[in-house]
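User: Please predict the structure of the protein below. I'd like the answer in structure-token form so I can feed it into my own downstream comparison script.

Assistant: Understood. Taking the following sequence of 505 residues as input:
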Amino acid sequence: MQAIGRDGLGESGRLNYDLYDTVLRDARRGYELGTQHFAITPRTGVQTYSMYAEQMPFTQVRDYESWQRRLETYPTAVAHTLAWLREAVARKRLWPRRSMQRLPEQLDRLIAPAEASAFYAPYRALPPSIGAADAERLRERAREAINDRVNPALRELRAFVVDEYLPAAPEDVGLAHLPGGDELYAYFVRSETTTDLSPDAIHEIGLREVARIRAAMEELAPQLGYGARPLAEIFRALREDPANYHPTPAALLSAYRALAKRIDPELVRVFRTLPRLPYGVVPIPDAFAPDTTTAYYWPGALDGSRAGSYYVNLYRPEQRPIYEMMVLSLHESVPGHHLQIARAQELRGLPDFRRSSLSFTAYTEGWGLYSEALGEEMGLYDDPKSRFGALTYDMWRAVRLVVDTGMHARGWTRDRAIAYFLDNAAKTPLDVENEVDRYITMPGQALAYKIGQLKILELRRRAETALGAAFDLRDFHEVVLDQGALPLDILERRVDAWLAAELVS
């Protein structure tokens, strides 16, 4: 890229150049700081590769042969991970023991006889276009690869985690306890938020946001049906009331799917351009559900051959409150991640890396959190509990600013982080513990949501003030979305340029 230079490029070419340059510089800096030593967590790493089978096409023999090659070379991927982890042990740059103790049990769920393995999923129902002889040949090769290569590699990984990693792992949480941890956390904060805000500044923003949202919760609490009680008792009542939960995983999944259909028709009220690519609501795989968050989004294929997926966690439905389902769906599906990401994929005139793989967390997650508030403007929070759920989710992201910086920059313990979370949000203990463990092993990522949301809200208020009665929310959303993911400073410059043009037109 340096040999090409940017001076001879046009305006759009210079933006492409600068964005890709940012991605490469961040990756190189992360490698210099040793981010590769943190190659695995209970949520990320080589043990999650079986999930890729859900995202790939399996329609003809060559698709299965491609997956077969992946199965056969899986031990190489595990060996590379083990190489980084052994270096991590030697350099004492390890995730804390409490967070990584989940990993052996997760690996136990993955190590299974071939036909019960998550890696075998594509072979359970081959399409009719594949003849019987080919089908049996493909299945036999897959069984051999899983039994002889995948499972032994997973057993080797498990043995290393139990015998070497966990005994060396520290008790204390937070990067501040590790060699070079302060510099590493500063890197994560900057790259995830795309700002120069310090951990201390972000901590203070979090405290202010927690206070603001808590006041809104106290105002709404008397309408929830639990009487005039302190907020801590309202939280407890919400968590313990059986009426706030679906009784079975199947009922929970059906309710999520019904909510998605309810949201879709309201989008035209606040957007001019909607993506053509659909999305589906699907369960998080059983092997990973106990260790992961409430939901997440997986993008569709760039060529439109696979829909987007809104993954929902059906593990322990008695811990998945109904009053949080609408706000969660707005964030993960539409108008949140699916709308923003699918729309970016369908943009014309942009290089593929900007349409698919480019994801500045403060923008993508900031948009997701901003989208939650759009539920009010679309008329989707139609009872006090669902509105309280929206406040709970906003509080959740405000708490993150305090907890993430608290653990990684201020020496907070895991227990202190969990207690602060439970004191300020009506989320269930299972959700809170999973969330805090996520922040421990994904430093800085959780900061991006609230920092990005606050910037988008700031830009919207600026536009509303400048344009007055001429302000149209649909036009503002076009400007925010029409270039895909951007660092927050570049997004701000784009909105300001749009406003300047509108004011002289």
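That's the full token string. Strands lie at 279-283, 295-298, 308-312.
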